[in-house]
Amino acid sequence: PFFAAMAQPGKPVSPADMAPSAGATQSLNFEPFQEVKDELVQVSQAPVNESYGRLDYHEECEEGVNEQINIELTISYVYHALHAFADRDNVGLPGFAAWFKNESDEERNHAQLLVDFQNKRGGRVKLHTLVSPETEFANDVKGDALYMMELVLSLEKLNFHKLRLLHDIACKHDDAEMADFLEGQLLAPQSRSVKEVAEYVSQLRRVGKGLGVYEFDKQLAALVPAPAAA
């Protein structure tokens, strides 16, 4: 035993008694040059067109990240179309236009986070063709503002669902880093966005299609961060 002498009352403990046994010493030794041999062979033989740093990154995870990049960019595209519509002189919703532009930028930033993660893990980024969004969002029944905000809420909820599916893939392959990245960088902010937009939908349903939308537009404009100075 490691400290066997200490269990015997009255017997002095010598330095020899304090030393671990030969078997214990051997089990604690870390021999990096011995253990790294297999990895060194793989690194030295890696083709020049493949990642040298890829480690425990499953192909299904890589494909899922590329799909989510495309989802984020597509939603950004839709929000930019909403921005362009709200900014028309015959629509006249500058607060909505600025907010949609900010949301479009945010979705593109999320795509960039995924691009950076893909490269860090040794994956290959593959960008897909984006589907052209609609450009007309007028709605005589609900009003333009409520119709557009309900569309945003639907997209935010769909995006949250897609992120949950990607998180499931990470957990399926025991990719702790990918799961942590998704939880902290994307899922938590996405959940907050769903709550925020849901409240906007509730408020727009209360104010109707007239003066209330004008006041809501001014309040929405105040929430948009000021552009950075050039």
Entry summary:
This protein is mostly helical.
Structural features:
mainly alpha; 9 helices
Structure report:
The chain is an all-alpha fold. Helix content is 66%, strand content 0%. It contains nine helices and no strands. Helix 5 runs antiparallel to helix 6, helix 5 runs antiparallel to helix 7 and helix 7 packs antiparallel against helix 8. The relative contact order is 0.11.
Detail the poorly predicted runs.
Answer: 1-7
Task: Output the structural class.
Answer: mainly alpha
Taking the sheet with the most strands, its summary is: none
- C-alpha end-to-end distance: 70 Å
Helix content: 55-70%
Please write the string of helix (H) and strand (E) elements.
HHHHHHHHH
What share of the residues does DSSP label as strand, in percent?
A: under 5%
> Mean pLDDT, rounded to whole units?
88
Using only C-alpha atoms, the radius of gyration works out to: 28 Å
Any chance you could write out the topology, listing elements then pairs?
Blueprint lengths: L14 H4 L3 H7 L3 H4 L1 H8 L14 H28 L7 H27 L23 H29 L3 H32 L3 H13 L7
